[in-house]
Specification:
The chain is of the alpha/beta class. It contains 21 helices and 25 strands. The two termini are 43 Å apart.
Length: 599
């Protein structure tokens, strides 16, 4: 077994909790721009002191409403300033934040609030509350405090907290320790029911400080980021904490569709993203060049080749003079425009949530916007490894961060140890036991390899969780079970790993088919002959839509293909217990899967 420990370490004292970051910057640099929000055609900044005072006002309001230390409080909203303010207010009052994706269904909201025992929830809008909470409210009597952003509820909450003494809030905050839970992040499991990952103040503080040791040249108090990833995701959460710890300025994007325009307005020096965004940036430039045709298209094609070649040559030592001269020409024609489109001040970016791909990584590296790819899981706060300035190997997910050890088990599974790794799942001891080895190593469920310098390469996925190109974790079981509820459906295999959306392979029950075919005007036809018939497609579409009701839009099946024959143990697609052999099916129907994303 090969293993590698990231050089360096981080030492936390007992009361080094998350709230110390904001209070320290408010005291040391009260007028420093700490946050920024969109305001017309630009951004308006909020000072560190103003940020801290708004957090304190909300925290006292929560205390006035009865929030007790250890109480859970949910936030279901898109990434915005108020998300962060409420998060830190919950923490300052001694509570635990439970994030919910703003695309979650009512079923998911009910499960998360019920399982966590949350006493309150903040929703982005009255409409979101009406859709995601009100239909299940009767089943959640313990969730007594329900707030909405668009109703002025946060202002009312602050006013309710005015009678609370500052000393009482200070006592709550001062009592926090590194062992106290800070957040419970629900992540999909193979059973389809999300599991609550309990991350302590110490887990997140360690991950923040350890990662920051590697990025001191990239993230400082002079640097700015534009945050658009969902704060319900641990990747966005840790990047927000890293910039806050460094004393930089975090601006909140109004959404991925506005990202490019807002990069021009805000001119960030740092960006955190999932691979899909970098793919879109590249794809948009490529499409414009292709549409222009002629010389412009050829210039772009050549510029891409030169950028990749230069990055690869420098990784091996140095680029030849001729290549450097070509690169200088294309820097004026192409690369400079790419950097300008990203705001003109971008020093670098971090990519996580899925594989970036060596070609894309080399292109951006050569174009002067290095993208540092990393790896981790919700259970690991999330960063385990990352490429960083001076330590880059494109095609890998970098080296372990300081004090973190990565080991490759005999079967190729990636194991990890480090202070950022959670202690367990909320109310789920069985799942917790399953995720650690007997000697305390966290089992990632992924397969990988370490080179001699400690760079980790992901080679496969041991577990069945699908991670889309957008970084969304999707559990196949809930969708597959939902579709199989239709009596005509025999087997379903959800696909979409590293793809832009979720799709499915579907087989038809051979026993149910004859009667259904006769009732729908297809008597005497085989499934293979009728799989494109409108009646059958409509029936499977209805089954897909029913299954999608249990998940968010990002997790929903977008397309499916009906296969000509059912799967069986004899055919090699099923185990003796009738479980799908996913790798076998994926190989056998590779062309069908590819067609789902290309046609």
């Amino acid at each position: 077994m090969r293993e590698f420990t990231g050089p360096g370490t981080v030492v936390l004292d007992e009361h080094d909790h998350l709230v110390t970051t904001v209070s320290r910057h408010a005291a040391e640099r009260p007028l420093h721009p700490y946050m920024a929000v969109r305001d017309g055609d630009g951004f308006r900044t909020i000072t560190a002191e103003a940020t801290w005072q708004r957090i304190r006002g909300l925290a006292k309001g929560l205390m006035a409403d009865g929030l007790q230390p250890g109480d859970r409080f949910c936030i279901m909203a898109p990434t915005c300033l108020e998300w962060v303010l409420m998060d830190f207010a919950i923490l300052a009052a001694g509570g635990v934040t439970v994030p919910i994706y703003d695309s979650s269904s009512a079923d998911q909201v009910e499960w998360i609030i019920s399982d966590s025992g949350a006493v309150g929830a903040l929703f982005a809008s009255a409409r979101m509350r009406a859709t995601a909470f009100d239909p299940v409210a009767d089943a959640l009597p313990q969730c007594r405090h329900v707030l909405t952003l668009d109703s002025g509820d946060l202002d009312s909450l602050t006013r309710r907290g005015e009678p609370v003494e500052d000393a009482d809030l200070d006592a709550r905050t001062a009592a926090l320790t590194v062992s106290d839970p800070a957040t419970i992040v629900y992540t999909s499991g193979t059973t389809g029911r999300p599991k609550g990952c309990v991350l302590t103040h110490g887990n997140l503080r360690y991950d923040t400080k350890a990662a920051l040791l590697l990025f001191t040249d990239l993230v400082s108090e002079q640097d700015t980021q534009l945050l658009f990833l969902p704060l319900a995701h641990s990747f966005a959460k840790i990047l927000q904490l890293i910039v806050m710890e460094a004393g930089g300025t975090t601006a909140f994007s109004t959404g991925p569709k506005q990202l490019v325009a807002e990069m021009g307005m805000w001119e960030p020096t740092f960006l955190a993203s999932v691979p899909r965004i970098f793919e879109k940036i590249y794809g948009g430039i490529e499409q414009r060049a292709t549409a222009a045709g002629g010389a412009k298209a050829k210039i772009f094609e050549r510029a891409v080749d030169v950028s990749i070649a230069k990055a690869e040559a420098e990784a091996d030592g140095s680029a030849p003079l001729g290549l450097r001269l070509q690169h200088g020409v294309f820097d004026r024609l192409v690369y400079g425009k790419i950097r300008e489109a990203m705001g003109g001040r971008m020093k670098g970016a971090v990519s996580g949530g899925g594989p970036l791909g060596a070609r894309l990584g080399n292109f951006f590296q050569g174009a002067g916007v290095p993208v540092y790819e990393g790896y981790g899981l919700t259970e690991t706060s999330p960063v385990l490894t990352v490429n960083s300035p001076g330590y880059v190997r494109i095609g890998t997910v970098g080296r372990p961060i300081p004090g973190t050890t990565i080991r490759i088990a005999e079967d190729g599974e990636i194991l990890a140890k480090g202070d950022q790794i959670f202690a367990g799942y909320w109310n789920n001891e069985a799942a917790t036991r399953e995720t650690f080895t007997e000697d305390g190593w966290f089992k990632t469920g992924d397969l990988g390899a370490l080179d001699d310098e400690g760079f980790l390469r992901i080679t496969g996925r041991k577990k069945e969780i699908i991670v889309t190109a957008g970084g969304k974790n999707v559990a196949p079981a809930v969708l597959e079970d939902g579709m199989r509820a239709n009596p005509l459906v025999s087997q379903v295999m959800v696909v979409g790993d590293n793809r832009p959306f979720i799709a499915a392979l579907v087989t038809i029950d051979e026993e149910a088919w004859p009667a259904w075919a006769e009732a729908n005007g297809l008597a005497g036809r085989t499934v293979a002959e009728a799989r494109d018939e409108p009646a059958l497609v409509a029936e499977i579409t209805a089954a897909m839509e029913d299954a999608n009701k249990a998940v968010s839009k990002a997790e929903a099946i977008k397309k499916f293909v009906i296969l000509p024959a059912d799967w069986s143990e004899a055919g090699g697609e099923l185990t003796p217990s009738l479980k799908i052999k996913r790798h076998v099916v994926a190989q056998a129907y590779a062309e069908d899967i590819e067609a789902l994303y290309t046609r």
